[in-house]
Amino acid sequence: MTQEPSSVFDDIFSHNAKAHLLETTRWTKFLAILAMIFLTLFFVVFIVLLFNSNSRSMLSVGNNMAGAAGGMLFLILLLLLYVYPIWMLFRFSSLIKSGLLNNDLQQLEQGFKCQKNMFKFMGIFAIVGLALYVVVIAITVFDAFV
Question: Which DSSP category does 74 fall into?
């Protein structure tokens, strides 16, 4: 009977844990690539709409092009904000898979750091979004009673 060579990961992960983590990396890479494709498509559609005169007039309210430009700037900012967590998800999947297959603890640590950064960013993003909702609701309620 031959025994597989022992690695540093045998002390950290069981065989099943490694298998689950490798399968997770396949799904996270798929989701990251899919998100990149959708962001790119959204950006292309946005640019086409930006240069289409009919859509610019639809976006403006009462010929208020400044409002339409502000809305477009906000959408571009949202697009750019989503690039970072998607990139971190992609790097997580690549580094974890490479680290597990090559028995490289440094790559594994970098992969988990990317995962941490992605979740930290999304958490802060969620907190900011919730705070904005609270402010908008408070202004709406205040306007209704004044």
Answer: H
pLDDT tens digit sequence for 70-101: 777 788 888 889 999 999 999 999 999 999 99
Instruction: Classify 64 as helix, strand or coil.
Output: strand
Please give the Cα distance from 107 to 142 (Å, whole number): 52
pTM given for the model: 0.78
Phi, psi of 6 (to 5 degrees): -80, 145
Q: Tokens 């009673």 identify what position?
A: 145
First-residue to last-residue Cα distance in the chain = 83
Do residues 99 and 111 touch, judged by C-beta distance below 8 A?
yes
pLDDT digits (tens, 9 = 90+) for 8-35: 666 777 888 899 999 999 999 999 999 9
Listed by start position, the domains of the chain span 9-145
3-state secondary structure at position 115: helix
- C-alpha dist (Å) from residue 83 to 14, 36, 40: 34, 8, 10
- Phi, then psi, of 64 in degrees rounded to 5: -95, 85
